[in-house]
Amino acid sequence: MHIILVDDEQKFVTMLAKRLALRGIHADIAFSGDEAIQKAEKNTYDAAVLDLKMPGISGIQLKDRLHDMQPDLAFIFVTGHGGMDTPEKELVQKEIFLSKPLNIDILTDKLNEIAGKG
Amino acid sequence: MHNDANDLLNKEGLKFFGKVNASISHELKNILAIISETAGLLSDLTELARHGKQIELSMLENCSSNIAEEIQRGFRTIKQMNRFAHSVDDFIKETDLLETLDLAIQLTGYLSFAITVQTDFQTKPEKPVLTCPFLLQNLLYQVLCFTYAAVGHNGHIHIRCSSQDNTGIYLVFSSTFEQAFSSFPTQGIQHTADVLGAKLNTDSKFAELDVWIPYTNPKFMTKEHKR
Predict the structure, then answer these.
(1) Best exposed site among A8, A48, B86, B125 by fewest CB in 10 Å?
(2) Å from B220 to nearest chain A CA?
């Protein structure tokens, strides 16, 4: 399984990618929406794990851009915010949504579910 | 005497306090998330070592320094939280403008749309500002948020002090783009400035805005200050 992790918290995604690699999940990392788009131009992913609020392109805007590029891509949103604004809730209500700090077992279960669907 | 400041505090104060606390809690969650993932990786490596896999020492060193760095980041965040909490201690007091600005820069730095702020204080305020410190904090926070949104994440802002006389001091915010500040000030910023007796201006190209803060606002003066 090949995924992309996008978060401006660089250490967070770097650590998470290492832990996922130990579980057989190959994760590319990007620290911004622009970097994620560049990587998605060169690679095909099964899932994208996106921070909801990032400088520049937000997680929700990035989802739309990545979906246009790779329509089969599944999305998981991650945030450190305790709550979301109402418009954000409406936009992500159909998506998988996980709160920081992450539980790696829940994340890998969700990713395996996504891989199973494929 | 300063009913309008009281009214504004009652109306907007809690909202501002909540907004800042939300951004701090977000920062702390990010710090804990990194510590949590690093601890998780250490646990994963321990498990691998238990099964005979050779673990590189550099990985352990990296984990250890990550945790130490994030703990320091957490301490810095809590220090700003504490400074902010104490900004409500006195309704009116002689306030260090640059210290208040520094705290506003630190606090707005936790927002996802924050951009790089450069400061150059060759000119400094001659004396403390007699004001409502919490509302001054609120005004500077609002102005910084406005500039971040107006300039966008590819730009940066530069702040300096400028003094023309001894009645007050200008904080000058410069953007990297012309027209960036064309919609300045917002209603909220103008209202807060009015209550504090501050004046707001933009230059003709809207690439610069300034906030003039009076050293003394007569409506904040008590008998003790007038003596």
Answers:
(1) B86
(2) 37
